[in-house]
Amino acid sequence: MKNGFAIFLTAFLVLVTSWTAFVLGPQLQLGRARQVAVLNSSDVYPTSRPGEAAQGLVVYRANGCAACHTEQVQQDGVVCDVVLSSAGKNPSVVSNLLATLKLSGITEEAALAAGDKITAAGGKVETHIIPTGPDIARGWGLRHSVAEDFLYDNPVQLGSLRIGPDLADVGRRLPDANWQLLHLYAPKSVAKDSLMPPFRYLFETKKIGATPSPDALNLPKEFAPADGYEVVPKPEAKHLAAYLLSLHADVPLYDAPFTPAAPAKP
Amino acid sequence: MTVNEKQIDTSCRVPLLVLFGGAALWLVVGSLLALAASLTFHMPDKFGDCSWITYGHLQPAADDALLYGFCIPAGLGVALWIFARLGQTPLRGALVPVVAAHLWNLGVLVGLVGIFAGDSTGFAWLEFPRGGSALLFFSYLLIALWALMNFSGRREGGTFPSHWFLVAALFLFPWVYSTANILLVGWPVRGVVQAVVAWWAGNNLVFLWTSLAGLGASFYFLPKMSGRPLHSYFYALFAFWTLLIFGSMRGVPVGAPVPAWLPALSAMNSLFLIVPVIAITVIGWKTVRDATGPECKGGSYCMIEFGFVAFLLSALLLVTSACPHFSRITQFTWFGTAQTQLQLYGFFAITMFGAIYYILPRAVGIEFAFPKLIRVQHWFAILGVAIFVVALVVGGVEQGLKLQDPRVAFADSTKTMLPFLRASTTGLLCIVIANLMFALNVFLMIAAWKWSVAKTVFAFVISPLSKTEVKA
Predict the structure, then answer these.
(1) Which residues 214-233 of B are in CB contact (within 8 Å) with A?
(2) Do B204 and A18 touch (CB under 8 A)?
(3) Long-range contacts of B229-232 (CB under 8 A, 24+ apart)
(4) Cβ-Cβ contacts under 8 Å, A22 against chain B
(5) Which of residues 176 through 205 in chain A touch B, CB cutoff 8 A?
């Protein structure tokens, strides 16, 4: 039992290794990350959140919202759809060929093979990439969350428990600031089965003055204050709503490609 | 000169009273906060008017009160005493750990108030704002330094398995806590590196620190109480190294938005935790198998045995939740909460109860006011943690299956949880009762000690001078 020193030295080396792998490693790999290009576009991603939304992140942190909400959309994989964009000079040959091929919900390899066959027959195709998985199917996001989504956030609030739904893309999903404020003040007024505690302390109930406040919430009857009173969001509530609306993880990236839905034709 | 045990125990008396007294206080506070947080699910509307009672404040505060308020100071106190006993060396300069323990308690108070005031850092298990975390860091350093000085002054040169585990725990906290606070709060790293550092630190504090400190105590008390030698030195060394290797390099959840090697490495190491689990099972089994020592009647021995089994189960839950496919189901569910509670309360806190019930009467020289309450407390603690953990493990899997099925509306997955959450609240209620009983015995012990000190001082003041002194 005289090898105390050797035992402690090896223990120390293990902890150094752990630190190198989980602190130094990620910092070297990601610490200098920059904006990246959005696929098929000249835009870069991400841009920092506008001022009000950045203040909203402070409210989100201070109230511990991450205790119940994650900001990580998960994805199982992708499937591909092959879509004919032009039939070319021999439409009948191409359409006969199309009838023999499976073109939707197929793997990348199958999509490439099918695309090659159609191109050889003179047609032109587009391949659409469609992410799959329960979170995507629920509409919580268009693709899985990636490191770039959080580049400018401090602190990064990924969360670990889904007592409430995922919020990574809530700004696209529920883009109405008034809905967000109503939901914060009285969750059950917009989501009947919600377990979320109300955040009434982010609002003020006050007597209606000479003119009603333009910010006053338009609450359903059972949640409305007494006659002559109105519910007005405090700045924190407005910031929080602005932050929620700024949560958009909805552009295709090299790490997380997908084909955006075509804009609706006018 | 041989130093007798009595002298060693007495030398630790005041630091232990401060550390264990503070721990008992925060234990009660933490479980009350957890109970309040849990009530949110049964009556969310009642929790909307004041920021101090919102779930996002109550739950982190409850977690931190348990970890920083109870687990760490209790572990430090037990480590101080075990070092003094194993090294046959009385603790010198006890004033320093006494002052440090008070500073630690102040740090916990500052941190908890900070969370409620909205100054949380926003990282799980590291929520304390800088004022609180700085106090914790420096007071920990002082106590750990005193423990290590006692360790290096031990009478025999060799080391015991308890020494390795406890020294590693003493070292681990300052290392991890300073890294995390510097890189997350002081000079924050960018983007998701923050999340990785926070996960790494959270795992190292909640899982690895408590495992090292708790097993260090178990490996001292199990042989001592069962009257059998620890089986064996080499098994323990193997368990120590494998636990450090696989336990320290994990924590990043599957599917996290970080480079894929991080979750993959974490999951692999979590699976390999089965190796130390098997080694530790063998150690425990072979040590207590032929025990002829005290019978398990709800006393210290019984608690430490239960804690030991709870550790094995908790580590097995970690292994299970790292299995491919199954990890997809359990992530983001209450399963993780159940595992943490089993680790912190079922394993660590109950082991500490056993240790403290054993140590305090010896160190203070006074028996507990209600020794029969210990047995009742033991059952309430076990019952509470069992209800809590079973409900949330089963509920968590159920919730996970619903979350993985997009045809089930999200609201239905939360509704599924309600009966399980009701059960977990009941479990928490039992835990609150157990904690109150524990605190009652500890506080009465402190009061009895203060009273005896006061009596001694008073007797000294009014005692007539002896003849020799008058002559002089």
Answers:
(1) 233
(2) yes
(3) B229/B287, B230/B161, B230/B283, B230/B287, B231/B282, B231/B283, B231/B286, B231/B287, B232/B283, B232/B286
(4) 196-197, 199-200, 249, 251-252, 262
(5) 187-188, 191, 193-201
Q: Do B237 and A161 touch (CB under 8 A)?
A: no
Find the domain containing B81 and state its range: 1-158
Whether B403 maps to a domain, the answer reads no
Whether complex ipTM tops 0.85: yes
Q: Do B257 and A62 touch (CB under 8 A)?
A: no
Residues B337 and B427 sit within 8 Å (Cβ to Cβ): no
Q: Where are the alpha helices (DSSP H) in B295-349?
A: 300-320, 326-330, 335-341
Q: Is the dihedral of CA B239, B245, B251, B254 positive or negative?
A: negative
Q: Among B122, B168, B191, whose Cβ lies nearest the Cβ of A11?
A: B168
Q: Would you say residue B212 lies in a domain?
A: no
**Which residue is closest to B162 within chain A, CA to CA?**
A4
Asked if residue B242 is part of any domain, the answer here is: no
What does each of the 472 residues of chain B score in pLDDT, given as a tens digit?
Answer: 456 889 999 999 999 999 999 999 999 999 999 999 999 999 999 999 999 999 999 999 999 999 999 999 999 999 999 999 999 999 999 999 999 999 999 999 999 999 999 999 999 999 999 999 999 999 999 999 999 999 999 888 788 999 999 999 999 999 999 999 999 999 999 999 999 999 999 999 999 999 999 999 999 999 999 888 998 899 999 999 999 999 999 999 998 999 999 999 999 999 999 999 999 999 999 998 877 656 666 689 999 999 999 999 999 999 999 998 899 999 999 999 999 999 999 999 999 999 999 999 999 999 999 999 999 999 999 999 999 999 999 999 999 999 999 999 999 999 999 999 999 999 999 999 999 999 999 999 999 999 999 999 999 998 887 766 665 5
Residues A53 and A246: beta-carbon distance below 8 Å:
yes
Domain(s) labelled CATH 1.10.760.10 in chain A stretch across 47-74+136-246
Flag whether B350 is in a domain: no
Structurally, chain B folds into a number of domains equal to 1
- Residue A115 to residues A87, A89, A111, B326: CA-CA distances in angstroms? 12, 16, 6, 36
Candidate from A15, A21, A197 with C-beta closest to B47: A197
Using CB atoms, pick whichever of B41, B121, B253 lies closest to residue A195: B41
User: Is A47-74+136-246 a CATH 1.10.1270.20 domain?
Assistant: no
